[in-house]
Structure prediction request, 452 residues.
Amino acid sequence: ATDSATTTDKISVGVPASGITAQDEDANTLDMSGAAIADALKDTQLGLTPSVVQSILPHGTITIAADAHPSTSIVVAGKDVWVPFARYKATAQYEDMLIDRLTVSSTVGGDNADFVQVAIASGGAVKGANTLSAGPFGVVDVDLTGNNITVPKDGSVNFEVWAKLATVQASSTVHGATTGVCRTGHSPALGLLSNLQTGEWNANYAGKLNVRTTGNASGERVYAATGATTGNAQVLRKTKPVVTKQNLTNTVLSSGELELYRVQVGADSAGSIALKQMAFQVSKSANVTAGSFRLYRGSTPVPSSEYTVVNATSGADLYTGTVSAGVGSFIAAVAFTGEDSINGSGNIYSLRATVSYTGTGNNITTSFYRDGTMPVVTGYLANGAVGVFANSTSIFNIDTSVGGGAAPTNLGTFVWSDNSEVPHYSSITPGSRDWTNDVYVEDLAQSATLSN
Prediction:
């Protein structure tokens, strides 16, 4: 007999009572017809439901599942480096599995033009790569023939989807096109495709991952069930800020001008950024008064003509004004009249205020103001009320309309630009569509406290 290549064969071997003869030590022939013996020998192994069964599988199995996809972050495009977009874990049973072809899919939010190449990598090395065709999103096969991924029997292997990213294009360069080109703010994602049934992929891939797998011992094609999700979308920028909180020069609360928050803002090696606005959440004890807010660049006060500082929820001037005792918390929005251009390690900024208080046990805690519900946006600078921010010419939010000049749609907190538009403007009119908010800017969550 031969085994089946499509179903699981089962074998059970038993011995009937009549097929066994035995003698005792006196050479007497034993009676093998007893009910207990018959049950043990015949009913359990020769009946319809034998207790011991050997299964002959036509092939092993392969399982592929998502495995801690890279978290969404700002990715600097245009660098000749591989960027991980998705991570998977393949597990084999009963025999080694050989993976030699996979279909990679790009998704809505990005554009095929965002990618120079996509690749499958394992063990930190590229196993195979290919190029996506033109279009807003699509699929491409990555052939690993001759450099396949081997998943060991009863073991696992991790592999990843990597990509090299195209250079971000300015609107003026591409005549305003937002698709078919790599533009700042695109949010591409990559992952494995399922259910494709054309070309290499036949009807057997219905409801299965498009991962071509062969059992090493059986030689049979093996199919992995769907469920391996696409990786998290990444946010493309021409460059990005590097924000690092610094220790306060003093953490003791006393009367006079005090440093409330200290931070270094630098730029990625890909190029300079433009900084327009920083919003600070300030919380203080009821007995504390704070006013005459100032911004320092290093140890030098920034000239008053170069920035404004206002209460973001009321628009009240905090450069000359005071937040009285009894007010527990407020948002101080510091906006540059133009912009601060930052290269390399950048500048150290400190927010300071003149403080007075009564009694002991008082404190002031300051951090960047963030709204966890904000989406990633790219747009123009705009004045106008959004969310908790008041309508003020000293408060900048973001207008995501195509041509600009509309009311702001998204809150501006830590407002910055990757200078991807040519020309780039720091004003509302005519403005440039390359400003964004604090989403995915790292190290904006830490606070600084003074107390007595």
The longest strand covers residues 329-342. DSSP finds one helix and 30 strands in the chain.
